[in-house]
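Predict structure. Input: cysteine desulfurase, 380 residues.
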Amino acid sequence: MRERIYLDHAATTPVHPRVVEAMHPFLTEVYGNPSSVHGFGREARQALEGARDTIARFLDADPQTLVFTSGGTEADNMAIIGGAMAQRERGRHVITSSIEHHAVLHACEHLEQLGFEVTYLPADKTGMISTDELKKAVRPDTILVSIMYGNNEVGTIQPIEEMGSYLREREIVFHTDAVQAVGVLPISVSKLPVDMLSVSAHKINGPKGVGALFLGRKVPFTPYLHGGSQERKRRAGTENLASIIGFAEAARIAQEEMEERVAKYRQMRTTMLQCWQQEGISFEVNGHPEKHLPHILNVSFPGVHTETMLMNLDLEGVAAASGSACTSGSLELSHVLEAMCLDDPVAQSAIRFSFGITNTVEEAERAARKVAQIVHRLKR
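Output follows.
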């Protein structure tokens, strides 16, 4: 049987066996609606709030500041649209970056259709957003800024603390999409100067279809889902209890294993880069050389087109990606690489390898050898 190596954990991760085990009773036995007042409902409510407490500890947050969502996309949309609409009488200027996930970019485009003005900050060749550029963009009518914590395509970690401190002094609401950073970086919303922060379960070996938004107590916010008074009237709809339980278990495991996981991912990255050096193939690493997420390695092999490399890797049983899973089916150049103004041969040959708990260092080396073989074969 052909070996299969999954190196696309930034797109999604396999559900941890302990997470499946934790969820099972809430799919079969504990089926009450958390909003019901009878015993079945109270049992579900107790489990829901217990899960909220666990995820709050993971993020060092007050449990009451967490709003459960259907995932990172909804959390981003809630933060940007809900945060902007609540302040539209105060101003209509929003700032984001040109390398955000489409959940942020498309939400900002929606705001533009509603009459808001959006400034898209540029990135440098390492994928870094400049705090000085942010400061220049701030205006008296700026009401909201959204900058991602760590980029999902090249892994660059942004100066969130520096940006947040500046914005807090000016009382401008600050949101960060931490979907890729959570689980590989310790995150404390009680220390970080952020007002809203998005996370998703399926990036940390939890189930798909559940996430959360940290929403600071004093942050202006207008809900855009209407129907019930769930989540303290901030997000209507019956909570996805089984998935929330799974999210909490995934968060618990990620917290326990973070140090060990990160050490392995760094070793895998080093192993792949050393392999390519030994094989004598031409490659360039994209993203910041030091400030990058440990599980994401974006690298270009000039002369070998991205789609050609991905197809050949797939035939060899190796799963990698060209960028965000939301756009990887498209043949268009990644908007992140385009915003970084990389040379065409580099941008058009970029591959994202992303590591996870099921991988081994030996797998990383075998995958790297396969990449080298493909490059040598195609160059011949």
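The mean pLDDT is 96.
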